[in-house]
Amino acid sequence: MGKLIFLTVMVIFSLSLAILPTAGYASKTDPLYTDDNDESWFHNLCHGNEKFAKLHFYVQDLLKGENQTVYEVARANITSNSATSFGSVRVLDNPMTAGPDINSEAVGRFQGIVTAADLEILSFSMNINFVFTSGRFRGSSISISGMNQVMNEQRELPVIGGTGAFRFARGYVITTTYFSDPDMEHNVLEYTIYVTYVHQSSMSSCRANI
Ligand SMILES: *[C@@H]1O[C@H](CO)[C@@H](O)[C@H](O)[C@H]1NC(C)=O
Ligand SMILES: *[C@@H]1O[C@H](CO)[C@@H](O)[C@H](O)[C@H]1NC(C)=O
């Protein structure tokens, strides 16, 4: 009986391998590619069937105007009197671009919910999905969840998972504010994602390692 269940699981597993998309490193021609730093230390962390990707892009935060992409959907009765806008919940669908210019190549959408969740410091609880629409990872997504203290120059949030090429993803993102317009109409955020994930074509040897 145990053997039969094992065999059934293996057959389902093998079948699923046939329909998985291919995955790999962002190539130098990919709009998400960056070679800013030597990341060899990070590559050395990867072993077995894990692959590594470093993805770099910008997020266009449009708070007002005809192309607004960020909308408040809820607030607390203290939000207006709170120095940190505590309790404000916003839904957003921001363009992701290869360069800082809003008219540079579109690479995806930055979709999710951002909640002002700190009574003392300007800090947002982020539940965000990076949905890639171009390049090698088109159709795949990466999800992050964590606190974002936006007054800090550099912020770090955990990657909590992914879909498509990024199944079994884990890692982190580093984000900085690249540009913030004084009228608070348009912010540009720089994002770099450091992610490991299971290379789909080597999942069969993953199985052998269990
Ligand atoms: C809004 O988007 C359209 C289409 O991309 C563009 O032509 C227009 O200039 C944008 N408006 C503003 C205020 O940026
Ligand atoms: C906010 O609502 C709570 C009850 O829900 C009430 O006790 C409190 O006084 C309200 N605060 C303000 C600033 O209106």
From TrEMBL:
The gene is LOC105169764. The keyword Cell wall biogenesis/degradation does not apply. GO terms for cellular component: apoplast. It comes from Sesamum indicum (Oriental sesame). Homodimer. Belongs to the plant dirigent protein family. One of its GO terms (biological process) is phenylpropanoid biosynthetic process. This is Dirigent protein. Dirigent proteins impart stereoselectivity on the phenoxy radical-coupling reaction, yielding optically active lignans from two molecules of coniferyl alcohol in the biosynthesis of lignans, flavonolignans, and alkaloids and thus plays a central role in plant secondary metabolism. Pfam families: Dirigent. Its main location: secreted. Coiled coil: none annotated. It is found in: Secreted, Extracellular space, Apoplast. Keywords: Apoplast, Secreted, Signal. InterPro entries: Allene_oxi_cyc_Dirigent, Dirigent. It comes from the Eukaryota.
